[in-house]
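One such given next:

>
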Amino acid sequence: MLSLSLLGAVMPSAFAQTPLPKDNADGKRIYENRCSRCHGADATGGESGPNIVSAIASRSDKDLAAFLKEGRPAKGMPAFNDIDNDEMKFLVPYLRSLAPIVRNTPLPTAPRKVNTTTGQTLEGRVMGEGMSDLQLRTADDHLRLLRKSGNAYKVVTSQTDWPGYNGDPSGNRYSKLTQITKANVSHLTPAWIFPMSAPQVENTPVVIEGVMYVSNANECYALDAGSGRAIWHFQRPRTKGLAGNAAIGFNRGVAAAGDRIFMLTDNAHIIALNRFTGDLVWETEMADWRQNYNGTAAPLTVGNMVVSGVAGGDEGVRGFVAAFDQSTGKEIWRFWTVPKPGEPTSETWQPKALEHPSGATWMTGTYDAAADTIYWPIGNPGPDFNGDDRPGDNLYTDSIAALDAKTGKLKWYYQFTPHDVHDWDAQEPAVLVDTTWQGQPRKLLLQANRNGFFYVLDRTNGQLLLARPFLKKLNWAEAIGKDGRPILNNLPVNAEGETYVCPGFQGGTNWFSTSYNPATGLYYFQALERCNMFSKRTMDWQAGKSYMGGAARPAPGESFEKVLRAVNIQTGEITWELPEATGTLTASAGTLSTAAGLVFFGENSGAFMAADAATGKALWQFPTNQTWKASPMTYTFDNKQYIAVAAGANIIAFALPE
C-alpha cells in the first residue's frame, strides 16, 4: 500500500471506533501478508512505502476499508478488492491499533537522566532525539530542549518569540531583530525542513520558549524550533460533508497563552491543547457546521480570553466574532457582523437577504491594549456577485469593526465597500501603528484593501484620514469621497451580461500579511493588477453548497501582474515597487520587515526573497518552487535569528551558516 495520506476523502468529526480485539492475530497476519513489506511492521515506513500512521489516525474505519478496496493505482497503491468483509473486520482494527484516532507522536520513552553543562541533572521522557539534539518532557510536563556538548547537554530556548499569528497583537509583521542584515542576507540558507501531511499549508508558525507550533486542518505539531524535530502531534479525523475552505484543509495557525495552545477545527469548534503534551483540555462548538460554518482562522488571545471568527462567507453563513474563557472554553461574548430583522442597521438589507447574509470573520483581528479595543475585519455579503435581493449598504460587511474587548460591543465601524458585488471582503490585515502622521501624533489603523485602495484611519474613532488607489488598473470607483464613501463609476454591461471590473474578484490584494517599517515610514504589501468579467445569476442557498450568485472570469486577452509595493503612509504614494514573475497562478504570500532594513516575501514564481526595505532592490532568493499560501515570520533560537515560512507542505526555517 502506498501512503494512505493520498486518500482525498474526509470523515465525520466523531464516529464509533472499531473495538480492538484483545488478541487480533488474524488482523496482524493479514497486515503482515499484505502491507508490512511496503509500510513496515509498525506502519512507520518500509521497503517501498511511506509512514502511514498519521493517515490511518485521520480517517474513519469506513474510509479505511473503502480505500483498501479501491486503492489508488495511479499513485502506486493497489486495490485490495479481494479482501472480503470477514478479513476486513480484523484488518481495520489492527490498523487502528497501530495508529489510534488521536495520538501524540512520537510516544514518550522510558525515563532518562541527562547531565547538563551547568552541572544540573534533568530527568524525563525523551520526546524526540537526534545525533546532537534531545527533547525531554520532565516530571512537571514541561519541555526541555537540549543540545549535545561533549558528554553533557546544553539547555537551549528562544530569546525572541513569535507568540501569535502576526507576532504582535498590533498585526504588524515588523521585527526588531537585526542579526540578518543587508550585508549578510545573501548567505541565508535552509537550517531545517519539517514536512506536514497536507498538500498545501496556510499557517504561520508560532514560537514560544523554544517550541514552534504549526497546524493544518484538525492537527497541530509542536516542534523544536532549532532543529524542526517533532515533539508531539495532535490529530483528529476531518469532518465529512463540509463546505468551504476548511474542506480543502486550510488552517492559518494557532494562538497561545500560559500552558495552552488554541486552534479552530474544520467544523467550527475551538479547542485548547496542553502546550507541553498536546492533550485536549477543552472543546467548544462555535457554530453548526451543517449550516455551512467552518473554521480556518488563527485565534487571537486577549487578556484571559481567546477570540476568533468563523469561515463560510462564500457559503452564506451569518458571521460573528466570539470570545471564550481561556481556562474553561465558556463563551464570554459574541458580536454578530450582520443584524437580524428589526435590529439596528437591518435597514441596510432586505429582510429575506438576512437569512444568509455572509459577513464571515476568518481573518485574525488585532488588539490595542491601551484602548482595550479589538479591531476585526469583516467579509463580503452574500451572495457574492449578485446584490439584487440585498439593496443597501449591507452593514457590517466589508468593514472594520472596533469592539470593546470586555463586552464585544461595537465602538465604531468603517465600511470600505458598501453593497459589495465583487467579493471584495475586508479580510486583509488591520495594522495598528502609533506614529506622527502629517505632523501630529496619531493612533492609526492601516489597510491595503481588496477593493484597490490604501486606507489610513484614526483608530480611536474610525475617522478616515487617507484613501488612495494603489493599483494602475482600477475602474469601479473614481475616488473615496470626504464622507468615506466610494465615488462610483457607471460600468457598462455587455451583451453577454458581463461587466468588466478592475480589480478582479481576488482583489488588488488579499488576506496575506502586510508590514510597516517605522524607520522607512513605508508600508509593504503584495498587489495584484488583474481585471475580471463579472456576471450574476439567481440562486437559492443550500446547506453544503457555495452561495456565490454568479461568476468572475479573467478578462479575455489580459494577463495579470503581481507586484511587491511600498507605500508612504503619509501620502499614499507608491515609493517603490518590485515586479514579480507572472504565471498561471497568483500566490498568496505576504511580507515581513525587520529593523535591519529588510523585507522578506514569497515571490509569485515560488522563490522566497529578501529586498532592501528602503529601495526595493532584490538582495536574496531561494527557489522553493511552491505556490505560496502562507506568510513569513522570524524568531531567535539559541541566539541565532531564523526566518520561517510554510512553503507547499513544508515548514522551512532559514538562518545564517555557522
